[in-house]
C-alpha cells in the first residue's frame, strides 16, 4: 500500500462519519524496557487492536525503537482474520495521517520541506509528502550526522535537492515536519514563516514536545481529536493550551469545516490513534495484502 492509498483510507472513514472524539482511548502500561501501548478500535466491518512496544534502548543494540503486532478481527463475528507487523503498520499510517492534514493545510506549491529526524518516520514522511506536494528541496536536521546524510542521500535519489541543515532552516521552509524523540523544542517558532505549515508526530506524552510556545501561540491549531490532544499532546499542553475551543480536529478539516488561514502558520499535532491503524489495516485486508 502506498502512502497516498493509506491516506485515502483514513480520509474515507472520516468522510463516512467517524468521529475521532468518540474513539477508544489508548492504554499505556510502563514495563521494564519502556512502555507497552494497547490501541483498540472497531467498526461494523472490522475490529482491531495494536499491541506496540516502545523500547528506547533498542536502537543502541541495532533493534527498532517501536515493536509490536496488529490483530484484525471480523466485525460481526470477532473471528481473527489477519495478524500484521505493528511497527510496519505504524510506519505507514503515521505519515499517512500527516499527509491527510498537510494536503489541506500546506500551500499547493509548497516545495521546501525541513525534516527533523532521520529514523523510519522521517523516511515515511518524506515519501508521503512528496506524493501530495510538489517538493523540490529537503533540509534534514538530526542529532547524528551519518543518519542525516543518509536521509539526504535518499532524498537526492528521489530527484530532490537535499542536504543537512540546522534548526534555523525553518526560516525558509514551506513545510516543517518533526519526527523525533525530543522532549524539548527543536527550533525557534518565531522563525517559521507565516505561509508555512508545521507537523509534529514524535510524542504522545504530555511532558514532551518538539515545538515551542512561540509557534503554538502564533499558529492555527489542528489535532486528530481534541479530547486526546488535551490528554497527550505535550506540544500544546506545555504551551498553555487547555481549552477545546482553540483546536480543530481532523474530521472537521477533512470535511472542509475549518479555517485554513494564510496569514499565520498552521500547526498539526498528531499523537497517533487506534482508528487510524484500523482504517489502514482494514483496507489492506480488503485488498488481500
Describe the structure.
The chain has helices at 3-15, 86-105, 120-132, 145-157, 213-218, 226-232, 234-237, 250-254, 274-286; strands at residues 27-31, 34-42, 46-54, 66-74, 80-85, 112-116, 137-141, 161-164, 175-178, 197-200, 220-223, 247-249, 266-269. Helix 1 (3-15) packs across helix 2, helix 1 (3-15) crosses helix 9 (274-286) and helix 2 crosses helix 9 (274-286). A hairpin with a 3-residue loop joins strand 2 (34-42) and strand 3. 33% of the residues lie in helices and 25% in strands. The longest helix has 20 residues, at 86-105. The strands form two sheets. An eight-stranded parallel beta sheet has the order 8-7-6-9-10-13-11-12. Strands 1-2-3-4-5 form a five-stranded antiparallel beta sheet. It is of the alpha/beta class and 289 residues long. The model has no long low-confidence stretch (mean pLDDT 95).
Layout of SSEs?
Layout (H helix, E strand, L loop, with lengths): L2 H13 L11 E5 L2 E9 L3 E9 L11 E9 L5 E6 H20 L6 E5 L3 H13 L4 E5 L3 H13 L3 E4 L10 E4 L18 E4 L12 H6 L1 E4 L2 H7 L1 H4 L9 E3 H5 L11 E4 L4 H13 L3
Parallel strand pairs: 6-7, 6-9, 7-8, 9-10, 10-13, 11-12, 11-13
Antiparallel strand pairs: 1-2, 2-3, 3-4, 4-5
Counted beta strands: 13
Strand order of the largest sheet: 8-7-6-9-10-13-11-12
Mean pLDDT: 95
Note the gap between the termini.
8 Å
- Biggest beta-sheet profile: 8 strands, parallel
Structural class: alpha/beta
User: Helix content range of the residues, please?
Assistant: 25-40%
User: Which regions contain 5 or more consecutive residues with pLDDT less than 50?
Assistant: none
Question: What form results from the Cα inertia axes?
Answer: globular
Rg, Å, rounded: 18 Å
- As a percent range, the share of strand residues is 15-25%
Give the number of helices. Answer: 9
H and E string: HEEEEEHEHEHEEEHEHHEHEH
